[in-house]
Amino acid sequence: MNEILNMSMNEMAEADFDCSCGRHHSLPIKKIAIGKGVLKELPGVAAEFKGKQVYMISDNNTWKAAGEKAHAFLVNDGFKVKSHMFETGNEILIPDEAVMGRVLMEMPLDTALIVSVGSGTLNDMGKFLSSRTGVPYIIVCTAPSMDGYVANGAPLICGGRKISFVATLAYGVVGDTDVMKDAPMHMIHAGLGDVLGKLTALTDWSLAVEMIDEYRCDTCVKLVEKALKRCIDNAAALKERNEEAILYLIEALTLTGVTMAIVGVSRPASGSEHLLSHYWEMDFITRNKYPELHGVKVGIATPIVAEIYEILGADIPEATRKLCPKRAFVEELLNSAGAMISPKEVGIERELFYRSLLNANAVRNRYSVFQYAKDIGRLEEVTQKITERIYGK
Ligand SMILES: [Zn+2]
Ligand SMILES: [Zn+2]
User: Which residue, of 153, 180, 207, is where some domain finishes?
Assistant: First the structure.
């Protein structure tokens, strides 16, 4: 039981076990290959589809980062591959109706496997296409920028709004640290931000267990904590693109995805810090302002949530209080890697900031420290204090 605790990341594919939390967990992902030089293992990961039609999607940046090599590995191994590369120049690819339509039109009729090469956007496009066509997909990761490689949600732009569609989990994940260590530093910072967000996500989960008796899987908590620790201990080395630090980062991101998939809730990965980040993002999108990378916002939101816990102090039940990181600790970690810390740096004005703290609990129906602070009548006081610390009196 719980042998998953001793498994390496790559051994977790198709994990299937009775857990000490009383539930049976299984992970439908068939292949996970994460590590140095694993891109060349792609033909092995895709072996089941050899001789059938493979459809590869990328953009000009991800093609250069890994697509070209991935394509060559497959073709040299005898795979039949059609590649479609979106030429976006220096612009980023926006997954809207036109782009999703194009990706579908380019798809060969007899496609048996989709291979998507990229990070956030191309991963979301690949999994959406896969979910609607029933054709499995493999994601070749190009940046350790968020935890969505193992997740079934696909946020796309539809009718000018960002909509989180339910899609499907990947058949396989290939994450080569030789590729990811060369990702733009901003994306590496985003990945770190998304990982640090797990500190407050786990704290919120504990609060929900104590306050409203929510289900929690302690095996999953232990898995995330273990990966978090390794990533945190090496965070400062991300600045130098240290390969081990990149490996621990992508492992932590992938592992939180794995735990989400096996417990069927996003609690191991997202808490109040994600509510804040989503609030800011929705506000930016409504105003046609660039919303910044997901993980960058989560990174900025995390010390703020830690501060809420600090201010509430003795009002927080003891077991949860002990779990929460200190604001200074999270800020120091972000700082050591060169990542942004202040909401001001991403253009969040005082008014938006103030409003976001008061209303983040309405982003989704889920118990959080915002709800708790509201219930005990201290949300306005906390909001005032933090706003004044950051923006002045
Ligand atoms: Zn996230
Ligand atoms: Zn469990």
Answer: 180
Residue 26 lies in a domain: no
pLDDT, tens only, 326-345:
999 999 999 999 999 999 99
Cα 257 to ligand 2 centre (Å): 14
pLDDT tens for residues 135-172? 999 999 999 999 989 989 999 999 888 888 999 999 99
The whole domain housing 134 covers 36-180
Kindly state whether residues 111 and 223 are assigned to the same domain: no
Distance 44 CA to ligand 2 centre (A): 31
Q: What are the tokens at 38?
A: 């694993």
Find how far residue 28's CA is from the centre of its chain: 18
- Residue 24 falls within a domain, yes or no? no
CA of 269 to the centre of ligand 1 (A): 7
Residues 287 and 322: beta-carbon distance below 8 Å: no
* Residue 330 and residue 307 in contact, taking contact as beta carbons nearer than 8 Å: no
128 and 147 both lie in a single domain: yes
Closest CA to 42 of 85, 77, 7, 10: 77
Q: How far is the CA of 289 from the centre of ligand 2 (A)?
A: 41
Whole-number Å distance between alpha carbons of 214 and 131 = 30
Can you give the pLDDT at residue 389? 97
Which conformational region is residue 178 in: left (phi greater than 0), alpha (psi within -120 to 50 degrees), or beta?
Answer: alpha
112 and 209: one domain?
Answer: no
Q: Is residue 8 part of a domain?
A: no
CA proximity to 304, closest of 219, 221, 368: 368
Boundary of a domain, candidates 165, 180, 195: 180
The CATH number that applies at residue 128 is 3.40.50.1970
81 and 213 both lie in a single domain: no
Number of compact structural domains in the chain: 2
Q: Ligand 2 centre and the CA of 11: distance in Å?
A: 17
- DSSP character string of 147-169: SGGG-SEEEEEETTEEEEEE---
Which parts of the chain register pLDDT below 70?
1-2
